[in-house]
Amino acid sequence: MLCIHRRMSVRWHFTLFLLISFMVFAPLIAGGDRDAQRPDDAVFIAAHDDALRRARVWVRPDTPVERASLRTNPDGPDSLDARKTVSCRFRPGGVSGTTPKFDCELDGGDTVKVKYGRNNPELYTEVIATRLLTVLGFPADRMYVVDRVRCYGCPDDPFAGLQCINEGQSVNACFPQLDYATYNEFDAAVIERPIKGRRIETSRRRGWTWEELGKIDAGAGGASRAHVDALRLMAVFLNHWDNKDKNQRLLCLGEKDAPGHQFTPGSCQRPLAMIQDLGATFGPEKLNLVRWAASPLWSDATSCAVSMKTLPEGGSTFPDARISEEGRKFLADRLRRLSREQIRDLFEGANVAAYPKGDSNVDRWVSAFENRARAITDHGPCPN
User: Fold this and answer.
1) Is residue 15 part of a domain?
2) What is the SS3 string spanning 10-76?
3) What count of other Cβ atoms lies within 10 Å of the Cβ of residue 83?
4) 339 in a structural domain
5) Fewer beta carbons within 10 angstroms: which end of the chain, N or C?
6) How far is CA 180 from CA 25, 170, 339, in A?
7) What residues pair up with 305 in beta bridges, in sequence order?
8) How far apart are CA 116 and CA 148, in angstroms?
9) Which of 188, 125, 119 is nearest to 347 (CA)?
10) Along the 384 residues of the chain, how does pLDDT read in single tens digits?
11) Is residue 27 in a domain?
12) Contact indicator for 151, 104 with CB cutoff of 8 Å
């Protein structure tokens, strides 16, 4: 009897141990994230979906397409002179992506993102893509070409240290010799300023996927089918293949973050769905003229079907789609207004000839652009 009692006691304790372990670790196993169990998740999703349903994707530009400058930095009170050195103070912190970049605080207190390295194709692709989209009316962040960036506190390669922070190490451990009395200069660098507004995102949920564009409802104040299809077609034109959700942004234009980043349905007054990261464009290998020029605009020209299945990531979040005639015509009307001189300014202003790994012949880039544009402008009406 004593032996049986001991066996039962051991089994009882083992069962109790399993029960406690399940209560402690189950929330971590399910979804792999404590945030997955947050009670306000449903509220955020509702706010996200409500804003996306009412979101615009196109805004009439202040300057007509045919009069816009594609060579120079964006105008405005925050503009930066392409001929001058920009000084800033290094802001170490976690960083996303795989291309060299860091955050830096300007003299006025604004924190900007600096992308650097002459071999970094995103120095050129983001300038080209953001300027083109902005001129056509699709909102994008502002990218500034500058003579050089003088970063106080920066090591020779800040991105390497920032990846150390991503791995959970402290700033002191990753930058043991951080010294704001010294500086490093980066003569191949561009500066990014984001569009101002309240972002609808959390640490777990960012942006939107291209599958979600179907949620936009023109009847609720969102973008028209023509505008949505024109944006899809522009994404294919650019080869925006790295289109995971965090590379798009859902924004409340002109609004500031609410206390505690609270989100409620209906609180976003001017929702905007935009492409956030345009670095992986102009070819499956980024700034690859041959592969960009060879990439088909239409997967089936007769039906005006588009696809990114042949690009890296197999299309990622971009599903195969058919472009409406309204969408094709809307984009075609704007592409036709671009002159050859403007297209040349676009590539020369982004310094593509300085990219050591790519084709430095601007004429060939201009011709490839015009050929891809003609696949849209000269195309017959798309079937309804």
Assistant:
1) no
2) HHHHHHHHHHHHHHHHHHHHCCCCHHHHCCCHHHHHHHHHHHHHCCECCCCCCCCHHHCCCCCCCCC
3) 8
4) yes
5) N
6) 43, 18, 46
7) 300, 322
8) 10
9) 125
10) 434 344 434 444 444 444 444 444 444 444 444 344 454 688 889 999 999 999 999 999 999 999 999 999 999 989 999 999 999 999 998 788 789 999 999 998 999 999 999 999 999 999 999 999 999 999 999 999 999 999 999 999 999 889 888 888 898 999 998 999 999 999 999 999 999 999 998 877 889 999 999 999 999 999 999 999 999 999 999 999 999 999 999 999 989 876 555 678 888 999 999 999 999 999 999 999 999 999 999 999 999 999 999 999 999 999 999 999 999 999 999 999 999 999 999 999 999 999 999 999 999 999 999 999 999 999 999 998
11) no
12) yes
The single-letter code of the amino acid at 308 is M
Tokens of 183: 């500086």
Number of domains in the chain: 1
Q: Can you tell me the distance from the alpha carbon of 293 to that of 372, in angstroms, rounded to the nearest whole number?
A: 7
Residue 86 lies in a domain: yes
Instruction: Please provide the DSSP assignment of 144-172 as one string.
Output: EE-SEEEEET--S-HHHHHHHHHTT--HH
Helix, strand and coil content of the chain, in percent to the nearest 5, comes to 40, 15, 45
The Cβ of residue 383 has, within 10 Å, a number of other Cβ atoms equal to 10
pTM above 0.70, yes or no: yes
Query: Which domain, by its residues, includes 273?
Result: 41-377
